[in-house]
Structures are given as structure tokens and as C-alpha cells.
Design goal:
Length: about 210
């Protein structure tokens, strides 16, 4: 790598580091190119040269952030669950792995409604939801709850649920135990599915 290329790469890295820091503090739309330039100690034009739009800046930040946060991958679910055969232990291991990632991510994983309209954010949240649902399905493979039930249970292992429990003072271990217990309780007590019909209740006839 020649000196010019190395300088370009270092400047880009400084911009990304500054942006990640500011996005965690102020949000994506609360951060301006001027803010980034000041934090990175570069000219505003330099920021625009590297990242002309949010559609280029946000994915680059996300890629770097995920390298640092090390999210679990869908392919790692077998290793995460290991030799656990009991559904409770399998779910607990999934919860521990996901919640450890959420803890590492902290405010970097938070987003507001406006930010979720960005293509990169929609793609990331879709990926995360699908990954969580896949982990839950694999943990409950012996119970075979079906896709709808697995999706319903998965919300207990999503970042917003974890975040809410942490805000209320739960430790990570307690949050994992709570999510696991609630999932198993729901599976055990869920009502039988009813087929919706167009039948008019007797009280409404006439």
C-alpha cells in the first residue's frame, strides 16, 4: 500500500470511527456532516468525498461496527446450542448468546422510527429478526411449535425486549432466564388455534 492509499484509508477510518461515536450519542439524523468532520478533525468536504450520502455512510459504519461487536451468525446456532437436548437449556443458551451480543452493542443497536426507514437499517433489522427466529426454531426443534409459534416466541429474544428488561434493572442472567421461562410457559399454556368463520353470533342475529 503506497503512502497516498494509506492516508486515504486512515482518513476513512477516522471518519467512520467519529460517525459511529456520534450516531450512538445523537442518532443518525441528529448527526451532521459538520459534526463528523469536527469529531474526525477533517474538513467537511473530506467527509463528503468519502461518503457523499447516508446510503453510503450508514452501511460502511454498520459493517465496521459488526466486525467489532461480533454478532452471532445463523451458521453458529449448532455450536451455540452444543449438546443440549432439553428445550429449556437449548433456549437458555440461545438467550445467553443473543443477550451477550445485545449487551456488547448497547446504544449502537438502538434506532428510532425515522432511522428504520433507511435501507441499510431495514436490511439489518430484517436480518436480525430472521436470525433470532431461526435460533428459536432450532432450540425448539424437538417441540416442533410451527413457524407461527416460533415467530411469536421470538420477540422475547429480540433486542427491544432485552433492552426493556435491562432498563428495569434485570441482570443479563435474569433476563435470559425470564425470556426462556416465558417462552416455555407460553408454549405449554397457549390456547388451541381457532378457525375464523363468518358465522354471526346468535346474540347479533335478528
Amino acid at each position: 500500500m503506497d503512502s497516498r492509499t494509506a492516508t486515504f484509508a486512515k482518513t476513512r477510518q477516522r471518519i467512520l470511527d467519529a460517525t459511529i461515536k456520534l450516531h450512538a450519542r445523537n442518532g443518525i439524523f441528529g448527526t451532521t456532516w459538520k459534526d463528523i468532520a469536527t469529531e474526525a478533525d477533517v474538513a467537511v468536504g473530506t467527509v463528503y468525498k468519502h461518503f457523499p450520502t447516508l446510503d453510503q455512510l450508514v452501511p460502511a459504519c454498520g459493517e465496521l461496527l459488526m466486525e467489532r461487536l461480533r454478532p452471532p451468525s445463523p451458521e453458529s446456532v449448532t455450536e451455540i446450542i452444543g449438546g443440549a437436548r432439553d428445550s429449556e437449556e437449548r433456549l437458555r443458551r440461545v438467550a445467553n448468546e443473543l443477550f451477550a451480543f445485545y449487551h456488547r452493542g448497547g446504544r449502537h443497536l438502538e434506532s428510532d422510527l425515522r432511522e428504520r426507514e433507511l435501507p441499510a437499517m431495514r436490511e439489518w433489522e430484517d436480518y436480525l429478526r430472521n436470525m433470532v427466529a431461526g435460533f428459536v426454531r432450532e432450540a425448539l426443534v424437538e417441540d416442533d411449535p410451527g413457524d407461527d409459534a416460533a415467530q411469536a416466541i421470538s420477540f422475547l429474544f429480540d433486542f427491544p425486549t432485552f433492552n426493556a428488561m435491562r432498563i428495569r434493572g434485570m441482570t443479563m442472567d435474569l433476563a435470559a432466564e425470564t425470556a426462556t421461562g416465558m417462552a416455555l410457559c407460553w408454549l405449554k399454556e397457549r390456547p388451541a388455534e381457532h378457525v375464523l368463520t363468518n358465522t354471526i353470533p346468535e346474540a347479533d342475529k335478528g
